[in-house]
């Protein structure tokens, strides 16, 4: 081995994990950071190895995320963390996070899941829902006089799959139709946003507003 190769070997930091690696973070810290960036959340119940790493290296991870105009949101009681766009005011910055569009059915489903999560937490239980529960609840928002029940159910199933994709609904093992609601949902929408949507949809279900007036809500992942 040449002298230059010996020097290079001596300077190879324990945090240099592969050839050409110029990173500074330890392997487990990088894994926690990548999980946050890939989203939608880092959950202490499901990511048991990464959660203590996140707490240990919180400030380092916050600094890294700030370089991407992102901020870290952590709820230590729920053991849930995720990233969101930082409030940069009038500063024009690029957006790294994807935008997710919520249809009317998606919005109703999220409100229902948020309510189930709140009720379960008051009983100190996990929030578990079934496909049948969801279909029964969302049935009250089906258009009056509609005869396409199969089509409406198909839209509900599509909404369930979308919510599952974002890990808000997590499939329970050994069951195809029962899901656990992620605690992260409690942090994704403020209490004011939930209240405003709830009042709006209550008026719709009471017939005060036609469902067609709100065919799509835009939300952010």
Tell me the name of the CATH class of the largest domain: Mainly Alpha
Q: Averaged pLDDT, please?
A: 79
* Strand coverage percent: 15-25%
Number of strands: 8
| Rounded Rg | 22 Å
- Parts with pLDDT < 50 across at least 5 consecutive residues: 1-12, 211-221
Note the overall shape: globular
The sequence of SSEs as H and E is HHEHHEEEHEHHEEHHE
Return the CATH topology of the largest domain: Arc Repressor Mutant, subunit A
Number of continuous helical runs: 9
Overall number of structural domains:
2
CATH architectural arrangement of the largest domain: Orthogonal Bundle
Biggest sheet strand line-up: 1-3-2
As a percent range, the share of helical residues equals 40-55%
Major sheet = 3 strands, antiparallel
User: N- to C-terminal separation?
Assistant: 52 Å
Overall SS class:
alpha+beta
Which terms summarize this structure?
single chain; 221 residues; Arc Repressor Mutant, subunit A; three-stranded antiparallel β-sheet
Descriptive notes:
The protein has 221 residues and is of the alpha+beta class. It folds into 2 domains: 26-97; 99-220, Arc Repressor Mutant, subunit A, CATH 1.10.10. The protein is 44% helix and 15% strand. It is built from 9 helices and 8 strands. Helix 5 (104-122) packs across helix 9 and helix 6 crosses helix 7. The N and C termini lie far apart (52 Å). The relative contact order is 0.13.
